[in-house]
Write a structure and sequence with these properties.
Keywords: Periplasm, Signal. This is MucB/RseB-like sigma(E) regulatory protein. Its main location: periplasm. The structure is a single chain. The chain is mostly beta strands. The protein folds into two domains: 177 residues, outer membrane lipoprotein receptor (LolB), chain A, CATH 2.50.20.10; 103 residues, Phosphorylase Kinase, domain 1, CATH 3.30.200. The chain contains three helices and 21 strands. Strands 1-8-9-10-11-12-2-3-4-5-6-7 form a twelve-stranded antiparallel sheet, covered by helices on one side. It has a seven-stranded antiparallel sheet with strand order 13-15-16-17-20-19-18, with helices on one face. Strands 14-21 form a two-stranded antiparallel ribbon. Strand 3 and strand 4 form a beta hairpin. The chain is globular and about 55 Å long.
């Protein structure tokens, strides 16, 4: 979500450009993917995995409609609108539909009220660069604490559309990155949005009360943005799924009944340290916290959960 990614990215030597007001600029970069029509192809690198994705996007009312098509591996499409996000995958002639909680995707990575991020990230303007044949301005979002990863974006000079985005750790090392290899801004085919059947509508996650357990305190800037119940593979009962976010970083918390003897907390992390996880028992529930966030953020959320 194959090593040796070769991107069509060429840095251009030059002086740091004079940035406008940081809050205004960040807001323009956040709004560009939703107010512009564009289509193109980008590469996504996550650890040792690289994928190529075709995207078609156009404004629709106060929101947008977009269609992302995976060009390698198992055929898969993601259809996004302001109201919902749907993932369609095909295997052995069977199409599987999954409704997603988050409708944001590259290059639409920043929240609607992006200026609020400046409470938790410092915005640093960078040099001019070149991505997919287009000039872009670099900007870096540097975390002010240890609870979030940083980001380096490159926004197209004329429109502020992000052409590249890199998630970096505290040492500035890339953890995940997206980059257009080709893009046309200002025009896009209509991204066909399918009509959902009654069966598909019934598969939407049910809203959860969100009061099964309680949290003493969240990391600074994080708030709960979703609470649903969903049926997970190989789980007999529906699992409660909460999502917390500061607008850029997302952390999931899964709650399910304890099915075995009490256990000590379990810590897990991906090989490159981008994805962290903690599992612990809270009362009669097993709580799993995971996300693409630093370990201190995952631990803070997991240890803040209390039984009612």
């Amino acid at each position: 979500m194959r090593q040796g990614w070769i991107g069509l990215v060429c840095l251009v030597a030059g002086q740091v450009w004079a940035a406008p007001d940081p809050a205004d600029w960040l807001q323009n970069v956040a709004e560009a993917p939703r107010r512009l029509s564009y289509e193109g192809v980008f590469v996504f690198q996550h650890g040792d995995t690289m994928q190529t994705v075709q995207i078609v996007n156009r404004p629709a009312g106060s929101g947008k409609e977009s269609r992302l098509t995976l060009l390698d591996g198992v055929p898969r499409e993601v259809l996004c609108s302001k109201a919902e996000s749907i993932s369609l995958s095909t295997s052995d002639g069977q199409t599987k539909l999954e409704r997603r909680l988050n409708s944001r995707h590259f290059p639409d990575l920043l929240p609607a009220q992006a200026e609020r991020l400046l409470a938790w990230y410092e915005l640093k303007p960078g040099k001019m660069a070149r991505v997919a044949g287009l000039d872009c301005r670099q900007l870096e979002l540097v975390p002010k604490d240890r609870y979030r990863w940083g980001y380096v974006l490159c926004a197209e000079k004329g429109t502020d559309l992000p052409l590249k985005a890199v998630m970096v750790n505290e040492r500035g090392q890339p953890l995940m990155q997206y980059a257009f290899t080709e893009v046309q801004i200002g025009r896009a085919r209509e991204p066909a949005m399918p009509k959902l059947s009654a069966k598909a509508m019934a598969e939407a996650p049910a809203q959860a009360s969100g009061d099964t357990l309680r949290l003493k305190q969240l990391p600074p800037g994080f708030v709960r943005v979703a609470a649903v119940k969903r049926k997970l593979p190989q789980h007999a009962e529906a699992t409660e799924h909460w999502v917390f976010s500061d607008g850029l970083t997302h952390i999931s918390l899964f709650i399910e009944p304890m099915a075995r003897m009490p256990q000590s907390p379990v810590k897990g992390e991906s090989r490159r340290g981008m994805l962290n996880m903690m599992v612990r028992q809270v009362g009669q529930h097993q709580v799993t916290v995971l996300g693409e966030a630093p370990w201190p953020a995952i631990e803070a959320v997991a240890m803040a959960v209390e039984d009612r």
